[in-house]
Each structure stands twice: as C-alpha cells, then as structure tokens.
Amino acid sequence: MGNLDSVARAIEECGGRPVVTDRAAEIESATHIVLPGVGAFGDGIRNLRARGLDEILREHAVVGGIPFLGICLGMQLLGTRGYEGGVTEGLGWIEGEVRRLEPAGEDQRIPHIGWNEVAFTRASPLFAGVDTGHDFYFVHSYHLVCHDKEDVVAVTPYCGGFVSAIARGRILGVQFHPEKSQRLGFQVLRNFLAL
Amino acid sequence: MPKIRVMPTLLFKDVGLVKGVAFDSWRRVGSAMQAVKVYNMREVDELVYLDITATSDGRPPDFETVDDLADECFMPLTVGGGVRTVEHVRRLLKVGADKVAINSAAVEQPALIREIADRFGSQCVVVSIDARRRADGTYESYTHAGRRAVGKDPAALAKDAEAMGAGEVLLTSIDRDGTLQGYDVELTRLVSDAVSIPVIASGGAGTYAHMAEVLREGRASAVAAASMYHFTEQTPLAAKQYLRAAGFSVRL
C-alpha cells in the first residue's frame, strides 16, 4: 500500500528500527505500529481484510494498547465508513466517515496538495515541541469527519476546515505526511516513537 | 489555503542531470543524488524528478535509482518518465515516490489514469502536459519529450485527464523551457481555468517576478523551475521570500 519505504526511512532517521510486514508474528512483537497509506479507501481496506490484518491490528492496538499511528489513508481507514471507490466499511476504531473534500470557495482545488497549517484543538503528546499553526505536507482528496469531537487533536483550514490529526488513547492518526514534512514531521515521528 | 509551492525540477537523461533549451541542447548539470541532498537540506517544498528519455528509449522507470534518491529525500517527490503501467506506479510509490507523473501513456491510454486513481487515489496521479504555441496563437500538446504532436489543445487534454481521475497537472511550455524568459502565462491560465485540480507551471522561469506573474495571472498552484537554479544564483528559498513580500502565502 504505497509509500512504505518513505515512512520506514523516516522512522529509521528518527532512531526507530522499522520492520515492513504484513505478518501477525512480527506485528505482535512490535513496540509501535504505523499504518501508512497512499491509496484509495476501498482498495486499502480490502487489502487489510484479505490478509486478516484488520483483526490482528485491532487485537494489538485497540485491545493490547500498542501505540498506533495511521498516516493519511492509514488514518482514514480507522473510520467507520469510506466513500472512495464505493461505500466501504472501515476499521471502525474511530467513529466517523471518510468523505471527499468539498471546495468552500473559488480556487480551492481538490486534491488538497501542498503545505498547510495544522492548528491544535487540544494538547497531544504527538505534537510535543511543535507549535500550533505550522505547515505540514498534505496530499489527499478525502478526509475523516469525526463524530466525536474528543477524538480531534488538530484541524486544517481548507474546504471549510478538516480534521488533520486524531487521538483516542494511544491510537493516533495524522492526515498529513510526517515522513515528508521535514524537520517538524520528524519531530512528530520522534514523539510517536517516544510513547 | 495550502501555501503556493516552489518546486525545483531535476531532469535525468542517460547517466546524469541535464538542462536544455526548448527540449533540446541538453547540458550536463551534475549528479541527481547530490542535488537531492542539497534540496533536502534546504527544505524545499517539493521535488520533481523526470527521466526525460525513458519513453523514447522504450525503457521502464529506473526503480533502483528512484529508490536511492528517495532514501535521501524527506520531502515530497514526484517521479516521471517511462511510466506506462499500474505496476510501474505501484513500484515507484513503494520505493518512495509520493506522486507519479505520466505524459505519453496518459495520451495513448487514458484509461491508465483511471486505473491508477482507483488503485492509489487521484492525489498521486500527475498528468504531465508539454505544450507548444501554434502560429495562430492556439496550443498543441506533445508527448515523447516534445517530439510527437497529440492533436489536442492542452486545456482539453487536462480536462479529459481530470475526468479520468488525474489529481494534478504539470504543465510545461516547450517554447519557454530553458529560456529564462518567463512562464507562458496565457497557456497556464487556459489550463488552470479548464480544471479544478492544481496546476504546476513549468518552463521559462528566469526570475522570481516570473513566478509571481504565473501564480497571479496564470492561476497556478505551484511553480517548477530548473535552469534558473542551475545557471543563476537564484534559490527556492529566496524565491519564497520574494513571493511572501509580494503577498503570496508561502512556507518559510
């Protein structure tokens, strides 16, 4: 599922020892789990289910409490339902739907590609040492609409504002790409690895 | 709004980086790895890497080289050249490309755009359009590094690509390429007005003022440039400082 190498390389640069895997035994022995993702929602969730990874991830992240970070599509897949590539049920760890961004004005082009502000709605260890309002790199057409405001950690002012980071316990997600967001992105990854 | 993006372009031919004029007269300008490391250190907004002879030579993308470059590239990377199948895209994304640019294949098999978008999402499909102004002032699109006319104007081609699921347009003026005389603002405006996906203006940048002009008048979302960084003292950072002073929202 897309950009695995970039994420693995960035984690390495941040002092982690990434293992790219879809095997239960390796996931079981991990101290942290990252679910990256470039791709379409329907295809992504089908890939997870086909390998039985939905259940394995649930067991370790939701039940077992291993820190989990979903990146881009990896965050969206946590939602209840997605509308990209047909209507598909998501992992359902976070209540919410993954909908297409709707332009809120002229010149709001979709996909949302480039650097944009991440404004915190509450404190999160994920953003320790990062000030609110800094730019991170985004490349997406869909966003997670959270039903429970408590899950939202940060929002970004585009298309009427969308959720750019979520947290529920040790389940975390970012819509932007920390692995491509240079210095501040690495700070976010280091914060995650420190959990 | 996302910040406007200032993107260096790296053109790869044979074994090194090159830069030409009007898609010809290529000059060697150094190693790709060295360029990636420098741009990474300088935290540029995004990098475009195009293997300009892959299609003409009948080669697939050079996955190993992209893999090596991407390992040093902690900024967004768009890779193009020789991309003809969904499998090419899968492998490029896997080794670290964030977006994949398709040019010749987008014209010859438009359904490929749809296949890539369905599989990996529209956001990673960049349709690269090379255009030249005709004598009557209209425009013609080209493939195969500017050697084969498509018989379609770039705005129509961009619109079709968007309908098939393309997420971005990389629009290059062949006439202006390497001239340092400024972007083709009219061309950029035609395409930007025709689509609602972002358009990256390319070809002709010689000064920061050219960038401001194509962003404002051409309604581009990003400005790509190569020669002005290779052959003048100008830098992406100084470009953004200039653009900020000119009222644009940039990341500094």
Molecular structure report:
- The complex is a heterodimer of chains A (195) and B (252).
- Chain A has six helices and eleven strands.
- By secondary structure, chain A is α/β, with parallel strands linked by helices.
- In chain A, a hairpin with a 2-residue loop joins strand 10 and strand 11.
- Chain A starts with a helix and ends with a helix.
- The mean pLDDT of chain A is 94.
- Chain B contains ten helices and twelve strands.
- Chain B has 252 residues and is α/β, with parallel strands linked by helices.
- Chain B is 35% helix and 26% strand.
- The relative contact order of chain B is 0.15.
- In chain B, strands 1-4-5-6-7-10-11-12 form an eight-stranded parallel beta barrel, surrounded by seven helices.
- At the A-B interface, helix 1, strand 6, strand 7 and helix 6 of A face helix 2, helix 3 and helix 5 of B.
